[in-house]
Automatic annotation (TrEMBL):
SUPFAM superfamilies: MFS general substrate transporter. The chain crosses the membrane at residues 18-43, 55-74, 86-104, 116-136, 148-169, 175-194, 206-225, 237-255, 275-295, 315-333, 340-356, 368-391, 412-429, 449-469. The gene is efpA_2. It comes from the Bacteria. Signal peptide: none annotated. This is MFS-type transporter EfpA. It is found in: Cell membrane. PROSITE patterns: MFS. CDD domains: MFS_MMR_MDR_like. Residues 20-473 form the Major facilitator superfamily (MFS) profile domain. Pfam families: MFS_1. Its main location: membrane. It comes from Paenibacillus auburnensis.
Amino acid sequence: MSTVYQNPSIQQVFPLRWWALIVLSLAQFLVVLDASIVNIALPSLGTDLQMNTNMLSWVITAYVLPFGGLLLLGGRLADRYGHRRLFIIGVAGFSLASGVAGLAQSGTWLLAARALQGASAALLAPAALALVAKLFMDPRDRAKALGIWGAVAGIGSAAGVLLGGVLTSSFGWPAVFYVNVPIGLLVIAAIPFLVSKDIARERTSLDMPGAITVTAGIVTLVAALSQIEQGGWTSPVTLGLAGLSLVSLNAFIIIEKRVSHPLLPLAIFDNRFVLGGNLAMLLIGGATTGLFFALSVYMQQVLHYDAMKAGLTQLPLAGALVIIAGAIPAVVARMGMRNTLVISLLLLAGGLVWLAQTPSNATFAVHLLAPTLMIGIGLGGAFVVGTELAVHGVSDNEAGLASGLVNTSQQIGGAVGLAVLTTLSFIRTTDLLGGGALQAEALTGGYSWVFLGAAALSVIGAILVILIVRNHTNGEVID
C-alpha cells in the first residue's frame, strides 16, 4: 500500500506543503530529542529513583532499542495501512508514554515507559519521513526538504543536552518527559489539516517472522554488549546472548530471501546510495549517542557543572549545527553528496579526537568550546547528507521502507555504539583506578576512550562512503 494524496493543495500549493514539513519535522525533532534530552537529567533521576550507573545507561538504551528494532516493521505498517494514519498513532503513543515516564516512581516504571516511547517512535518516524518524500516530488524541493529534515535530526541530538539542562534545573527531571505531551497534541491536531487522508491500495501479508527475528537479533546483540561491563567478554551470559543474536539475525536474512513480501527486501541495497547512506547513518548514530552521553555525564561528574550550566555549554555546538545544516544544500549542489558527507564525517572525527584530549580540570572556553564547534559543523553536514543519501532513488511504494531503514540504521548504531563505547569507558576507568589514578582522572580517561571510539566510527563511515557511493550533484552522477 502507498499513501495517495488527492488534495491538489498538498502537491501544488507551496505554503501548505512547507507548513506540513514544519509539523512533521517537529514530531521528528521530539523523536531524536528524546534520545539525548535525558542525559543531563540522569544524575538527579538516578538519585530520586535509586538507579546505579549501569541502570542509567539503560534509560537511553531502553528507548533506542525498541525504536531501532521495530522501525522496519513500522515502515512496512505505514506502507500497508497509510502513512498519515500510522504517523498519528505513533505521535499519540509517544505523547502518552512521555506522560507516564514523567510520573515514574521507580526505575522499572521509567524503563517500561521509555520502551513504549521507543516503540511509538518506530511507528511515527518512518511514516513522517515517507510523508515528506511524497509531499516534495520535485528533486530540488525534495533536496531542500530532506536537508531541513536531516538538520532537524542533528539539531535534536544537540539541543537535547541544552534543553535537558534548562528543564531539569528549572522544573526537575520529569519535565524532560512532560515537554513532549503538549507538542505531541499540537502535532496531532494540525496534521489532518495539512495532509490528506490515506487511500489504501492492495494490502500484502505482513512478514511477522522477519519482524520477530530481526527484533530479537538486535535486542540480544545490545544486551550481550551491555553484559560485557559486568561479566566480561567470555562470560556465559555474554556468549549466550551473542550466539542467540547471531542465530536470530541469520534466520532473519534467510526469511527475507524466501518470503514473498519481505519486511526488508534485500534488493534495496542494490541501490548504492541507500547502502552507503545507511552505513553512514549507522556509524553516525553510534558516534553521536556515545558522544552526548559521555559529554553530559563528564561535565557533571568531573567538572561539577550543574544541569543548567551543562546544558548551556551545548549552545555553540547546536548553533554551529544549525548554521551548517542550512548551508549544506548549496554545498551539495557544488561538491556532491559523497564528497560533502566524507568531509563532514572527517570534521566530526577531528572534533572528537580534539575533545578526547580534555583534562580533568578543563575550562569550557579553553578546552571545550573549539572542539564542540568543530563537532557541530561535522554533525550538521553528516546528518543532512546521510539522510538524503539513504532515501535517494527510492520508488514511492518503498518510501516507508527506506524511511524506516535509515532511522533503523541510526538507532541501531546508537544502541550498539552506546553499549560498546560505555563498556570501553568502564574498562579504561577501572584500569586507571587500579593503577592509582584519582577518580576524576580515571573518569576523564574513560570518557576520552568514548570520544576516541566515536571518532573511529566516523572515520570508518567516511571510508565506507568513499568505497561505496558515487558522487552525485544536481541530478548528475560523477564517477
